[in-house]
Amino acid sequence: MRSNTRRQRGFTLVELLVVIAIIAILVALILPAVQRAREAANRLSCENNLKQIALALHNYHDSHLVFPPGMITNWSPLTATPVGVSGGGPYNTVNPNEPFSPTLPVTPPAHGESWMMHILPMIEQGGTYKLYYPGLSVYQNVNYSFWSTYFTTTSPPGTPLAYSTAPGATHIAQFYCPSRRSDMKSVSFSNKVDPTQTTGGNDYAGCVGSGVAFDYPTRALWNLGPAQLATLSTTATTAGWQVYQLGHRQGVFGPNSSNSIAAIKDGTSQTILVAEAERFDGTTPQYRGVVSDTSRIPSDGWAWGGPSTLFSTWNPPNKKLFFDAAGGPHDQGVQAALADGSVKRINENIELLVWQRLGSMSEGIPAGGGY
Length: 371
Prior knowledge:
The protein has seven helices and nine strands. It has helices at residues 13-64, 115-118, 126-131, 138-142, 144-153, 226-235, 352-359; strands at residues 78-80, 91-93, 204-209, 214-215, 220-221, 272-276, 310-312, 333-338, 343-347.
């Protein structure tokens, strides 16, 4: 008797290859859309981080009537002469080693803390703020081995309770741009106060103004006195060398600064408070070139006042040239929080003069241009 069972027909090799090709085409079409959606979400999250930081700065201002200092410094300054400048110097710089002091005693007490440390209570990090001990350097507040040993062998006022990490190395999610990284371990930049540090990084920086901010060979923030500022215009031999402390170049943040909203003469909607910080490693071949590595290697760590947390609009954004410029991982632009609390996405091809005016708070000239 003949069976009525029919033999099942399978896929041929050609049919299987066609199906695979169709799936590959669909994936190729869908993946860019998924990546764009992810980047859009990350950009919004970055924008929200900047909004929270700006709000915290305004809350600090409400309590203290000024914005926090860009950094606290009380060591005697080093001296240097700017490239292309002769006479009238040497010019003062903040001691770049101040945050790095690893030993005690330190006379006078080392500081070097950034403006970010001061706003911790305003971003629900009051516990970290209370644990941060101002009698120690930034390194000593970041390195857990030193910090924990110090407080188990001494009894200074306000001795903190046991803690899982040093306060300056606390992970703070709002200080990372999610398009770049989610923590310090995922992308750790080479210049830190503690080489062993794996938490406590940052991707945002406060604006010191629109002039030259750092002496690149030493990575020290310029800190000229009144007499030097008064004579600078007559001693510069390279056209355009202007330090950020000059009146028309000055920004909201600086060493031991205490600027109020009233000091922002150009208008809060025309002045940058905080922006994404340029982050790239100058020790890698693709970033070596016409400038030295010391001007390219970025710093990392929210507790560190200086290269890690301050920038200038002297150089354009997103060009991957200098550590003290603004720069972000987003396509064609950098995000910045203005002094009115708003956040703007600024085109990386913005006219340099407009960009510089956005960094100055009292130049007396509108920024102008579309940004």
